[in-house]
């Protein structure tokens, strides 16, 4: 089982870049899809440029390093 030390409270993922949150101080970010559909997760830089994306299937959880 993976272990991690939370450094802030858990939040729902924003759905627009205007509501994006910064997690740059984290070494690892835990992402969980609690829904029943797949969702696209897009990672943006500070200028709102896409630097990566991935699809999370229903119920999937991943750690992003």
Please give the structural blueprint.
Layout: E1 29-32, E2 39-44, E3 50-56, E4 61-64
Low-pLDDT residue intervals, each spanning 5 or more residues: none
Number of strands: 4
Average pLDDT over all residues: 87
Spatial order of strands in the largest sheet: 1-4
Number of helices: 0
What distance separates the N and C termini? 16 Å
Q: What series of H and E elements makes up the topology?
A: EEEE
Alpha-carbon Rg, integer: 12 Å
Question: What's the main sheet like?
Answer: 2 strands, antiparallel
Approximate helicity band: under 10%
User: How big a fraction of the residues is strand?
Assistant: 25-35%
Structural class per helix/strand content? mainly beta
From the spread of the alpha carbons, the general shape counts as: globular
TL;DR?
By secondary structure, this protein is mainly β.
How would you portray this structure in words?
There is one protein chain. By secondary structure, this protein is an all-beta fold. 0% of the residues lie in helices and 32% in strands. The chain contains no helices and 4 strands. It has strands spanning 29-32, 39-44, 50-56, 61-64. Strands 1-4 form a two-stranded antiparallel sheet. Strands 2-3 form a two-stranded antiparallel sheet. β2 (39-44) and β3 form a beta hairpin.
